[in-house]
Amino acid sequence: DLRLMQMPVGPVAVFGASNFPLAFSTAGGDTASALAAGCPVIVKAHQAHPGTSDLVAQAIARAIDRINIPHGVFSMIHGGSRAVGEALVKHPLISAVGFTGSLVGGRALFDLCAQRPKPIPFFGELGSVNPMFMLPGAVSERGEDIGRGWAASLTMGAGQFCTNPGIIVVMEGEAADNLINAAKDVLADAAPQMMLTDGIAAAYQEGQKRISSTAGVRSVLTSMCDQRQATPYLYETDGATWLADESLGHEVFGPLGLIVKVSDFEQMLEIAKHLDGQLTCTLHASDDDSDYGRALMPILIRKAGRILANAYPTGVEVCDAMVHGGPYPASTNFGATSVGSMAIRRFLRPVCFQDIPENLLPDDLR
C-alpha cells in the first residue's frame, strides 16, 4: 500500500523585490505560495519601500489575529545591509528561500544557501533580456506595427519589468529599417518616467553607458536621464558583434532596447543558441515563416520558461499554465515557477507512506 502526500518544507525566507512593492514583496506570490504549502514565512522587506511593506505586514497580522492562528506563521524584518540577508539565509531553521532581484545579489545568496552545513533550496529570479525574434514574413507584413508595439512594451513602467523585451533580432533589410524607425518614433515621443529607486536609476544609467561604449554598437536614439527620470535609448549592432561580446546579452533594467541585425537566418539561429537562460523568448511570425519557426522553437524551448508568438512579454497572467522562471540566470531553479498554480511546489516535498497502519497516517491520507 503506497500513498503519497506533499508536505511543507519548513520556514521559508522571502526577499521582497524592489520593483513590485505588492505582487513580489510582503504578501506577494512567494509569501502566498509558502503559506499555502503550510510553511511559516519570514519576509526580508526591501529597503526601497519599507512603509508599504510595513502596512501590508500589519494587515497580515490583523488577519492572523482574526482567524486565530499562531503569530509565528508570519514575520518580517527590515535592514538594508547585506549582513541582514546573509544572517537570514544562514539561519539553521530556514528551510528554503524565495528571491526576486539582481543577478549579483541573488547569486551571492544562492552560494550561501549551497555552502550551509545542510544546503537548502534557493528559488531566485535574477534577470532576463527576453529577446524577440522578428521573422521576415511578419516584418514585411506588419513590421511598423511590431515596432510600435515593441516600443510600448519596452517603456511600460519605465522598463522596470523583469519581462521587459530588451533585445530584438531581425534580418537586415528595408523592412527591418521600417520596423526600427517606427519604434524610434514612438520612443522619441515618450515622456520621462520616474524610476522606483535611486539604485535602479543609477544601474540603468550605468547599463546605458556600457552598451553605448561597446565597439560595434551604434546609437539609434539617445536621450538625457535626469536623476531618477528615465528616458528611452535605442541601440543597434550586427550579429557578429553580438556573438563576439557576451556582455551585450546582459540585462539593462530600464527602457533601453538593443537591435541585433543579422545577415541571414543561420546567424539568427546562432544568436538563439548563444543566449543565456531567459524568462521569455518571443517569435513574431506570419504563416510564411513556419519553416523558420520550426527551426527556432527547439532552441528557444531550451532557453526560456515561456515562449510567446506575436505578442509582447511584459504581462504575466496568474493562471494554472503560467511559468515565470527559466534556465539560469533567469532563475536558479529551472524546474520551478514563481507565478501560477505550480508556484506552491517550490515549498513542498513529497513523502511516500508504505504499508503504514491507517491510525498512523496523516488525516488527509486516511
Provide a brief overview of the structure:
With 366 residues, the chain is of the alpha/beta class.
List the helices and strands and how they pair.
Blueprint: E1 2-8, E2 12-15, H1 29-37, E3 41-44, H2 50-67, E4 74-77, H3 82-90, E5 96-100, H4 103-115, E6 122-125, E7 132-134, H5 136-155, E8 167-171, H6 174-188, E9 193-194, H7 198-212, E10 218-221, E11 229-230, E12 233-238, H8 239-244, E13 256-262, H9 265-274, E14 278-284, H10 290-303, E15 304-309, E16 348-354
Parallel strand pairs: 2-3, 2-5, 3-4, 5-6, 7-8, 7-14, 8-13, 12-13, 14-15
Antiparallel strand pairs: 1-16, 9-11, 10-12
Helix pairs in contact: 5-6, 9-10
Strand order across the largest sheet: 10-12-13-8-7-14-15
What helical percentage do the residues reach?
25-40%
Quaternary structure of the protein: single chain
Low-confidence stretches: none
Task: Give the termini distance in whole angstroms.
Answer: 12 Å
Please give the CATH class of the largest domain: Alpha Beta
CATH architecture of the largest domain: 3-Layer(aba) Sandwich
**The biggest beta sheet, please?**
7 strands, mixed
Q: If helices are DSSP runs of H or I spanning 4 or more residues, what is the number of helices?
A: 10
